[in-house]
């Protein structure tokens, strides 16, 4: 994993943006994210956003940001407790997931389950040894095969492949982004950007109106700001 920090300043990059925000942007409060840092990253670009778990506000949003940190088990339990499952699954406006938020877009995850634990509690959205996620992108989240590298995969790393997508406009192979994770989605037909840490994994996945970034755009300097801006300008 390359550890060099990108040379371009996020603040100088963001300061070139002119505020013309007319959108209704929502950050979903899953109870499992540093929401203030995500909101600040959006505001730095001249946009506004509301942090909420209110179903009606989420449904009416023009754009939905879905951040997350921690384990899939805990996050899905929170989402179920808040009654957000069906709302999130049925969104038709653009949705962007950050880190765990991306992983929760998958069909299932094993994150948060010990090797001896089998979950059958439907409240936690789990079958034996699998956490049932939102299922809006048909992929799985599995332990990252880091080979001889240390886990978690934490720090700056480069993209190894980038396909054409509006959210990735201006993003190229070898661009740096900031990662913190031990689980990942494998390469699939829904992969629109990849990264390598021991083995290749999906850095960005997309299907229909849902896009998920394994890295943290809000912590990824100028290029992370570019991805957020691309999304908010859809």
From TrEMBL:
GO MF terms held by the record: glutaminase activity; imidazoleglycerol-phosphate synthase activity; lyase activity
GO biological process: L-histidine biosynthetic process
Subcellular location field: Cytoplasm
Organism the protein comes from: Colwellia sp. C1
Coarse class of the protein's main subcellular location: cytoplasm
EC number: 4.3.2.10, 3.5.1.2
UniProt function note: IGPS catalyzes the conversion of PRFAR and glutamine to IGP, AICAR and glutamate. The HisH subunit catalyzes the hydrolysis of glutamine to glutamate and ammonia as part of the synthesis of IGP and AICAR. The resulting ammonia molecule is channeled to the active site of HisF.
Keywords in alphabetical order: Amino-acid biosynthesis, Cytoplasm, Glutamine amidotransferase, Histidine biosynthesis, Hydrolase, Lyase, Transferase
Pathway(s) per entry: Amino-acid biosynthesis; L-histidine biosynthesis; L-histidine from 5-phospho-alpha-D-ribose 1-diphosphate: step 5/9
Pfam families hit by this protein: GATase (PF00117)
Name under which the protein is recorded: Imidazole glycerol phosphate synthase subunit HisH
GO cellular component: cytoplasm
Catalyzed reactions per annotation: L-glutamine + H2O = L-glutamate + NH4(+); 5-[(5-phospho-1-deoxy-D-ribulos-1-ylimino)methylamino]-1-(5-phospho-beta-D-ribosyl)imidazole-4-carboxamide + L-glutamine = D-erythro-1-(imidazol-4-yl)glycerol 3-phosphate + 5-amino-1-(5-phospho-beta-D-ribosyl)imidazole-4-carboxamide + L-glutamate + H(+)
Active site: 99, 216, 218
Entries under PROSITE patterns matching the protein: GATASE_TYPE_1
Domain of life of the source: Bacteria
UniProt cross-references to HAMAP family, sorted A to Z: HisH (MF_00278)
InterPro entries: Class_I_gatase-like (IPR029062), GATASE (IPR017926), Imidazole-glycPsynth_HisH (IPR010139)
Span of domain Glutamine amidotransferase: 42-232
Subunit-structure text: Heterodimer of HisH and HisF.
């Amino acid at each position: 994993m390359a550890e060099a920090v990108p040379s371009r300043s996020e603040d100088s990059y963001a300061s070139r943006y002119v505020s013309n925000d007319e959108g209704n942007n929502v950050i979903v409060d899953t109870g499992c994210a540093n929401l203030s840092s995500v909101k600040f990253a959006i505001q730095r670009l001249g946009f506004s956003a509301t942090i909420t778990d209110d179903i009606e506000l989420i449904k009416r949003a023009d754009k939905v940001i879905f951040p997350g940190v921690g384990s899939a088990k805990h996050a899905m339990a929170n989402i179920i407790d808040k009654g957000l499952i069906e709302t999130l699954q049925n969104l038709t406006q653009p949705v962007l997931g950050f880190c765990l938020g991306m992983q929760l877009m998958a069909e299932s995850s094993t994150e948060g389950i010990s090797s001896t634990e089998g979950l059958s509690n439907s409240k936690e959205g789990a079958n034996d040894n699998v956490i049932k996620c939102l299922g809006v992108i048909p992929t799985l989240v599995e332990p990252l095969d880091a080979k001889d590298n240390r886990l978690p995969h934490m720090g700056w790393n480069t993209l190894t492949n980038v396909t054409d997508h509006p959210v990735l406009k201006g993003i190229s192979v070898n661009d740096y982004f900031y990662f913190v994770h031990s689980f990942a989605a494998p390469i699939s037909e829904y992969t629109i950007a990849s990264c390598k840490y021991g083995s290749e994994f999906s850095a960005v996945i997309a299907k229909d109106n849902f896009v998920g970034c394994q890295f943290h755009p809000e912590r990824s300097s100028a290029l992370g700001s570019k991805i957020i801006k691309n999304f908010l300008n859809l």
